[in-house]
Write a structure and sequence with these properties.
mainly alpha; two-stranded antiparallel sheet
Length: 602
Amino acid sequence: MELPTRVPYRNLKREVELVGAEELEQRKAVQIHELLSPSDGGDFSPDPDRVHPSTKNCSLWTLILSCTVAAGVQFGWALQLSLLTPYVQTLGIGHAASSFIWLCGPITGLVVQPCVGIWSDKCTSKYGRRRPFIFVGAIMICIAVIIIGFSADIGYILGDTNEHCSTFKGTRTRAAFIFVIGFWMLDLANNTVQGPARALLADLSGPDQRNSSNAVFCTWMAVGNVLGFSAGASGKWHSWFPFLTSRACCEPCGNLKAAFLVAVVFLSLCTLVTLYFAREVPLIPDQLHHVSDSAPLLDEIELTESSEISRLNAGSKMNYYEAEVQDKRNYAVDDADGSEVQRISETNDSFHNSPGAVLVNLLTSLRHLPPAMHSVLAVMALTWLSWFPFFLFDTDWMGREVFHGDPIGEVAEVQAYNQGVREGAFGLLLNSVVLGITSFFIEPMCRFIGPKLVWASSNFAVFICMAFTAIISLVSARQYFNGIQHIISASETTKIASLVVFALLGIPLAITYSVPFSVTAELTDDSGGGQGLAIGVLNLAIVIPQMIVSLGAGPWDALFGGGNIPAFVLASVSALGAGIIAVRMLPDLSRSSFNSTGFHIG
């Protein structure tokens, strides 16, 4: 056998050896055998499933029960969408500043979710890779919603005011501060759970179960949406649990507090079911590979072990050097005891998995994407500029513009506002039902007219619906000022028209949650499997518009005298621009090869 030659390698800061392919394979076989051999030194035959745990088909019931955590998370998310913007205004935070609290969502979506995904991929806990993150995230969600629900009471204890909540109209600074802490913690926890929950489902399902498992996951999310918006639409929680109201917490606060406590119980049950039925195979350290999902889209791609060996067999002397370097990095074994190279490997690994490295990787990869992806990113950004104002202010719009209420006004105005918020939550319930139904027709529509026209038409539909919100607001204001003003409420016509708009928006929303991701997967399919990076970059086109809306929607509305119509008009214009760019710039994709990626939210 040829003796190894020692050469310096600057990235490892020590010497490495140039070896041939056969010796490389022998070393790795010895390492795996030593790892899996029993301590008593007896004969042992390595279990291939333990060395490389294969994906085995689970029963349908196992998949169904392993996804229940999605319903629990979505229950709380639905309450967050329907109730929290109106509630924060009862604490004295003005409408113009209420959008700022939503800034945490896109920030955590940009940084936390990709990092949690990478960390869970490489987690070696004996309880599995995904379940520890799901468990910790669920606990954080429970703590966060309790903090939000009791923020008014905590602020009262800390000295906000001694006045009863029904008569106090000022700002409760301490309560608002506690609320913001809980709100940001809730967004952080949601992103901690959602990624590992989806990855867990992918781990458990076999190749022939992808479509059915995704349908199961989407169904649980729809169940959580329906239950959450139903809870938000109910105004009876304070009467069912009267002990939850206090001097600091009036009826709207009592309703929110009770609904969130129900969310804690529901999420706890769903999480326990998932943790019990989702049987993961623990990842052992030697299974870690340092080739990320993003590698195929980069110019300088780290070659995998198999490609190294195949090139070594071709007889390239330089490849001997490259393969041994890769072997040193991936398997971290030194001539003596392996401790030094193991330490260097862990240091490099922690650097590449850090939030900053993940974000830099996403940003620098923009120039490596297929050319057609740039038009996809442009359309996606405008699409979410049109959607996020609606997500922020939908129920507030119902309370203010349709029902003419005020969260900190007179008693009649407060009652009208709360009624409008509940009707808005009911509208979101209708939206979720229509969304769920529409999701079954997306794939046939894309096969019939193509995903390009389906996505473009969804943006035109958003343009029309958001324009109708302005028309409904103008009609409702005219009816209010021309009628008997001391009767504060919405007419039956404007209320029904508003609910119809809520329901119809479920159709383009279902397309927004599905088609862009399928288009991205198809465009990057020929790039060597770099869909993971492409989806991460697509996520930038979602969270950056959310940041813009969070920072600018409130002040933009204030420029025109307050209310929600200025933001909705801007959303309508953005949707029109997205539709036009989609028609003119999106590539024509194959209709026959379209496969829907299903429901995506968060």
